Amino acid sequence: MENIQQTLQTLFPEFQHELVSELAEAGVIQHFSEGDTIMRTGQNIRSTVLVVDGLIKVYREDEEGDEYFMYYLHPGEACAVSMICATKRETSQVMARAAADTEIIAIPISLMDEWMKKYKTWYYFVLETYRNRFEELLQTIDHIAFRNMDERLVFYLRKHQQSLKSNKITASFTEIAQELNSSREVISRLMKKLADKGLVKLHKSYIEVINNSNMLE
Q: How far, in Å, CA of 190 to CA of 192, rounded?
């Protein structure tokens, strides 16, 4: 319990001591290996999720089963979708997978509602979570609606590089094409162009970003 409280205080320094204590006592710690599904489309949401360690990738899934990348969740962040669905007693409209070995804390719905009234720091944290996810979605929509595919690909690589804290991106051309609503052939052609410019190196099992800042020049 003490270690959990120390971790929570580090990740959420704005939380009152009493709130941290309640989180450590009532929250359920769950572990996921890389690639595990954490949330499915249509799943009943009975708790909200705080990320303690690792990385979560959030997708939108269409009727055909195609997946479109939305955003990442990092340690110290919460899943806004789970918060909204839990509060409104609705099923999930997105799916989430562990992009690395991940640890989360699941918080029962009843406590989430109670803490909104009891702790101002939790109230503001929930509002900030909504705001951050909304801004990320606007940024994603902007690239989908108003940018060419080469710009969308650069945006995709940047987001992954920043979130993974690595220049090595293991996603295949097929996976990238699915997440960008494109075709493998288009992604392959654009990747080769970036490689010809010396901005990426295409290895057998991963993509290495060489100079991300100048990709659009």
A: 5
Q: How far, in Å, are 17, 19, 83 from residue 110 at the CA level?
A: 20, 14, 11
Give 2-48 pLDDT, tens digit per residue.
577 888 889 999 999 999 999 989 888 899 999 999 988 888 888 88
- Angle (nearest 5°) at CA 97 between 99 and 30: 95
What is the C-alpha to C-alpha distance for residues 91 and 186, in angstroms, rounded to an integer?
Answer: 35
Q: How far is the C-alpha of 130 from the C-alpha of 87, rounded, in Å?
A: 13
| Alpha carbons within 13 A on the beta-carbon side of 209 | 23
pLDDT in tens, 150-176: 888 988 888 888 888 888 988 899 989
How large is the C-alpha radius of gyration of the chain?
A: 19
